[in-house]
Design a protein that fits this description.
Elements lengths: L17 H21 L6 H10 L6 H11 L7 H24 L3 E2 L2 E2 L1 H5 L1 H22 L2 H24 L7 H26 L4 H28 L2 H4 L5 H4 L5 H9 L2 H12 L5 H13 L2 H20 L6 H15 L3
Antiparallel strand pairs: 1-2
Helix pairs in contact: 1-3, 1-4, 1-16, 2-6, 3-4, 3-8, 3-16, 4-6, 4-7, 4-8, 6-7, 7-8, 8-9, 9-15, 9-16, 12-14, 12-15, 15-16
Length: about 350
């Protein structure tokens, strides 16, 4: 089932992360070396589990955002490399924990660490990576950067618990769901973008601009992920299409279809999500209802709204290669579903 996305700016139709990749290439080589170094341990299982996910082909978008948001303000030191690595470790740790909580079998097209080493190892290695991330933050010596990233870690954990509290509850509202993804996904995007200008000594206004950019980019990114779960392909997702449905996750396409449906259709959603009757036949019906009520189209429209806010956040900043790359990332994130 395809999704047609109409961006308000046609020139972004073929947007990609390539400008960001090229802009951060040299620094990302240093980040990758530091990742391998800091993921090492005399306990053999730790690097085995960590490297299984770290080497599984993720775009490493968040650390690239940290690097670009520092160099766009003229930073030429090395602290942004440590912060970018810390951000990636925080992200990897949350993925390891998420897969345990969600009982996921696939991540980035491969078996999850929990399927190979078990839940206990996945949780504990995630904790190890969080510890290494905080050690690197301390090495940077910026209390402001430490405050931003440690706050993000707390907010992400709150988002996980909030998601648990609304899980399999069809009375979850759109506001409830946005609160979850603001904490779970957007908080780390925001922090990744804010610590760059902090170590670069940028102004408060510039720091605020990057924080807003990251927060709204993260919201747009997650909303498109929600669309892809019902309108993408396993190859593009790196997981099975419909995994959110099978796991009983409440995402925005489901919220919208449920609210707009008839009483019998709402009964179906309650039975599928709350009652766990989410087999392939139920998934097919769910996708039909999501199409019937335009849920993917409207979820994409919400993503475009946050994408516009992210673009506006960068508007006052001087033109630069980094700014252009960050703008292109916005369009890329939204266009993934087209």
């Amino acid at each position: 089932m395809g999704v047609v996305i109409s961006l308000d700016d046609g020139k972004h139709r073929d947007a990609s992360v390539k400008p960001l990749v090229e802009n951060t290439r040299a620094d990302m080589e240093r980040v990758n070396q530091l990742i391998l170094s800091k993921a090492g341990s005399d306990v053999a299982m730790i690097p085995e589990v960590a490297n299984h996910l770290i080497s599984s082909g993720g775009k490493r978008l968040r650390p690239m955002l940290t690097l670009a948001s520092a160099t766009m303000f003229g930073y030429s030191g090395e602290f942004h490399v440590k912060l970018a690595t810390a951000v990636e470790f925080m992200h990897t740790a949350t993925l390891l924990h998420d897969d345990v909580v969600d009982e996921s079998d696939l991540r980035r097209g491969r078996s999850t660490a929990r399927m190979i080493w078990g839940n206990q190892a996945s949780v504990l290695v995630g904790d190890f990576l969080l510890g290494q991330a905080f050690k690197m933050m301390v090495e940077v010596g910026s209390l402001e950067a430490l405050d931003v990233l440690s706050t993000a870690a707390s907010v992400i954990a709150e988002g996980e618990v909030l998601q648990l509290s609304v899980a399999k509850n069809m009375e979850t509202t759109e506001d409830d769901y946005l609160a979850v993804i603001r904490s779970k996904t957007a908080a780390l995007f925001s922090a990744a973008c804010e610590v760059g200008p902090i170590v670069a000594g940028a102004s408060k206004a510039e720091r605020n601009a990057l924080r807003s950019y990251g927060m709204n980019l993260g919201l747009a990114f997650q909303l498109i992920d929600d669309v892809l779960d019902y309108g993408g392909s396993a190859r593009d997702l790196g997981k099975n299409v419909g995994d959110d449905f099978r796991e009983g996750k409440i995402t925005l396409p489901v919220v919208l279809a449920y609210r707009r449906g008839s009483e019998s259709e709402r009964a179906f959603w309650r039975e599928a999500i709350e009652g766990g009757k989410s087999d392939d036949q139920a998934l097919e019906k769910a996708m039909g209802l999501i199409t019937k009520y335009g849920s993917l189209k409207d979820t994409t429209a919400r993503a475009e709204h946050y994408a516009s806010i992210a673009r506006d956040a960068l508007a006052p900043l001087p033109d630069s290669a980094e700014k252009s790359a960050l703008l292109e990332v916005i369009a890329f994130c939204v266009n993934r579903a087209s």
